[in-house]
């Protein structure tokens, strides 16, 4: 397809003439069939909802086709309308546009749907088994058309993938406002998602899928690297002087969890990651994210022993079920140092977790046709997995929940994961590492994308970011020196670790001061021409203030407010009027529908004075909102961080907690 044909296709939106049907591509990793949950009347409603995107004269042709999709896949994806052009992040100037900010958003959307990036690209799912950019291809086409027409005085409003329309606004307003899955709380159970998604009225946007800010597995590589580094440092065995050769065992290579072997290599450990889907494992191997594929435990176990004995840095993938791996490691008395799990257990019954003793195809059939039986198999599998993990933990393994609802689902399955105090036997990685060491001080996953698509622009941003961190490290207080040093090492090494998949993107953990200084350095470089085109700033929602999630991001908040969602909502509102190019608010993401509220943003900077103003105002709020909330929860690191920020910024006045001595409480309460 020529560039002009691409432009014409974008501008056409939903074409007037009926496109020819497309063959079902068996080389692409497809979403599993969803369970048949709609009543006959609801199926009629789902068809009516789908057909409203199309003129009446096409309804008789499309209705049976969409009904067949609903029957075969449990969803109406409108495969016929999938574009014929290759899906990837093009340089910003290749998109038809009236607003440069809108063109940047088009680039980010296409990156999320790139087959090298997305988990199920033809179902518009980026990661996590159900993290969708849109519900169907009509929505994609309409959104791209709207963005190609938008001016800097309009705002596009998105309802769970559906473009409500372009509305007049002003140049300082967000260009796009996104919500995903914002259903009434009493209708936020997993089956509610299945129903509303099948009806075509709501979707699960995950964290960065439905908000157009996913940058491939690199986005989680850095957080995983930090987690593994610090977990390993904290749990060095007596007599060891460094972490090389420590054994890290985990699971999941689809979507974000492809980051685990790469993070293991950067940290310098031996990692073994189980993956049930051969296509997902092969994809990560072909991309260079995992060093070795092993299809047999008889072959894998000796390889693990040798790598550990040689203290060799290597990443191995076991193409099989993780329960078989855990049970074999326990039976052979392998000394595992670190253990976790990154299967999508927020989505355990629809492709996020596959039970032991079943093939991939058997699981897919059962989850669609016998969902109750499949649920029991999942629970049985989790009980076995935890039993093996407990044996290894008793021998010295440090196991942590990696925020994917593993412990939550295992507890619901009746697995032995609870201790006497009614708490989980194992900590969340946020409780032990990310929360007290990073989030409480405002450090979180700051990311950016070079809209030119040029590697040399990305290299220049790496150089500028490293310079800022070097300068900050010279005068940094002791409690954040380690964070700065690790991130400086990361950004210096980022280029040679081949982290780019899809867009020319980068991520590092930075606090409010660091994010603003790095962004301002980029803005100056764009103005001078050292960076050729605008840069898109953003972050994962997995951050100090973007997410309220009691089993992950806010799991180290202990005043009871970890179950409240004020912070994420305030975050989005504040970002919107302080200069974000787009904002997003989601139900679900990472730990499951109904378990979390996420707030996110994207910001296009172009070298202008206005961009500099927006950087200063918005990034300051985006971080310090969360530090202030964590400070009020009596988190000591946050209390210190917000005091420093109030000294640095006299206009900031934060309500501080008064700490109560334990003996006052104990002497005053009758139990």
Report the total helices: 22
Query: What characterizes the major β-sheet?
Result: 9 strands, mixed
- Unreliable parts: none
Find the count of extended strands (DSSP E, 2+ residues): 17
On the 0 to 100 scale, the average pLDDT is 93
- Rg, Cα atoms, Å: 24 Å
Shape: globular
* Oligomer description: single chain
Question: How far apart lie the N and C ends?
Answer: 74 Å
Features:
single chain; 671 residues; alpha/beta; 9-stranded mixed β-sheet; 6-stranded parallel β-sheet; 22 helices
Describe the structure.
The chain contains 22 helices and 17 strands. The chain has helices at 3-12, 40-51, 59-73, 100-113, 137-149, 190-199, 218-234, 259-267, 278-286, 297-309, 322-331, 360-369, 371-394, 406-412, 429-437, 455-475, 478-493, 512-528, 566-578, 609-632, 636-648, 662-666; strands spanning 125-127, 131-132, 154-159, 162-168, 176-180, 247-251, 270-275, 292-294, 314-319, 338-339, 398-399, 444-450, 505-510, 535-539, 547-548, 582-587, 597-605. Helix 16 (455-475) runs antiparallel to helix 17. The longest helix is centred in the middle third of the chain and has 24 residues, at 371-394.
């Amino acid at each position: 397809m020529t560039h002009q044909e691409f432009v014409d296709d974008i501008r056409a939106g939903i074409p007037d003439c009926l496109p020819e049907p497309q063959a079902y591509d068996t080389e692409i990793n497809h979403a599993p069939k969803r369970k048949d949950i709609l009543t006959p009347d609801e199926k009629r409603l789902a068809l009516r909802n789908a057909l409203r995107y199309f003129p009446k004269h096409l309804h008789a042709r499309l209705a049976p086709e969409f009904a067949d999709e609903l029957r075969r896949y449990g969803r109406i994806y409108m495969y016929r309308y999938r574009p014929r052009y290759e899906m990837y992040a093009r340089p910003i100037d290749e998109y038809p546009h009236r607003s440069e900010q809108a063109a940047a958003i088009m680039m980010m959307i296409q990156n999320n749907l790139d087959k090298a990036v997305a988990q199920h690209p033809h179902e518009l799912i980026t990661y996590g088994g159900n993290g969708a950019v849109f519900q169907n291809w009509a929505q994609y086409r309409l959104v791209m058309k709207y963005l190609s027409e938008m001016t800097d005085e309009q705002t596009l409003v998105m309802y769970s993938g559906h473009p409500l329309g372009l509305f007049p606004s002003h140049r300082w307003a967000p260009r796009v406002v996104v919500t995903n899955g914002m259903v009434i709380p009493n209708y936020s159970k997993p089956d509610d998602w299945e129903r509303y998604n099948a009806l075509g009225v709501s979707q699960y946007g995950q964290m960065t899928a439905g908000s157009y800010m996913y940058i491939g597995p690199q986005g989680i590589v850095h957080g995983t690297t930090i987690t593994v580094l610090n977990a390993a440092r904290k749990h060095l065995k007596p007599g060891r002087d460094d972490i090389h050769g420590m054994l890290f065992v985990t699971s999941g290579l689809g979507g974000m969890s492809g980051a685990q072997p790469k993070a293991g290599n950067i940290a310098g450990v031996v990692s073994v990651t189980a993956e049930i889907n051969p296509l997902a494992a092969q994809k990560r191997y072909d991309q260079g994210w995992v060093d070795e594929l092993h299809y047999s435990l008889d072959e894998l176990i000796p390889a693990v022993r040798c790598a550990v004995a040689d203290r060799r840095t290597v990443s191995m993938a076991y193409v099989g079920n993780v329960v078989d791996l855990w049970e074999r490691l326990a039976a052979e008395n392998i000394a595992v140092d670190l253990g976790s799990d990154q299967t999508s257990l927020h989505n355990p019954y629809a492709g996020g977790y596959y039970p032991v003793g079943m093939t991939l195809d058997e699981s897919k059939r059962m989850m669609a046709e016998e969902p109750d039986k499949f649920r029991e198999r999942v629970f049985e599998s989790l009980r076995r997995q935890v039993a093996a993990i407990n044996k290894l933990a008793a021998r010295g393994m440090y196991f942590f929940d990696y925020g994917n609802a593993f412990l939550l689902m295992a507890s619901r399955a009746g697995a032995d994961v609870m201790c006497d105090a009614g708490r989980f036997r194992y900590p969340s990685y946020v409780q032990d590492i990310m929360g007290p060491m990073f989030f409480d001080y405002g450090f979180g996953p700051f990311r950016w994308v070079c809209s030119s698509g040029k590697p040399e622009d990305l290299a220049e941003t790496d150089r500028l970011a490293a310079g800022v961190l070097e300068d900050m490290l010279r005068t940094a207080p002791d409690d954040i020196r380690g964070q700065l040093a690790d991130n400086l090492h990361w950004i210096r090494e980022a280029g040679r670790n081949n982290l780019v998949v899809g867009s020319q993107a980068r991520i590092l953990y930075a606090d409010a001061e660091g994010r603003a200084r790095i962004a301002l350095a980029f803005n100056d470089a764009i103005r001078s021409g050292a960076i050729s085109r605008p840069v898109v700033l953003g972050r994962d929602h997995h951050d100090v203030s973007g997410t309220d999630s009691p089993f992950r991001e806010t799991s180290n908040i202990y005043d009871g407010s970890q179950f409240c969602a004020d912070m994420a909502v305030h975050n989005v509102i504040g970002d919107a009027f302080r200069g974000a190019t787009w904002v997003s608010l989601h139900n679900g993401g990472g730990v499951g529908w109904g378990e979390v509220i996420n707030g996110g943003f994207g910001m296009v900077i172009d070298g202008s004075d206005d961009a500099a103003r927006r950087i200063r105002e918005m990034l300051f709020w985006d971080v310090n909102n969360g530090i202030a909330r964590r400070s009020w929860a009596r988190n000591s690191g946050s209390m210190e961080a917000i005091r420093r920020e109030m000294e640095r910024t006299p206009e900031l006045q934060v309500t501080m907690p008064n700490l109560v001595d334990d003996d006052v409480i104990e002497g005053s309460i009758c139990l």
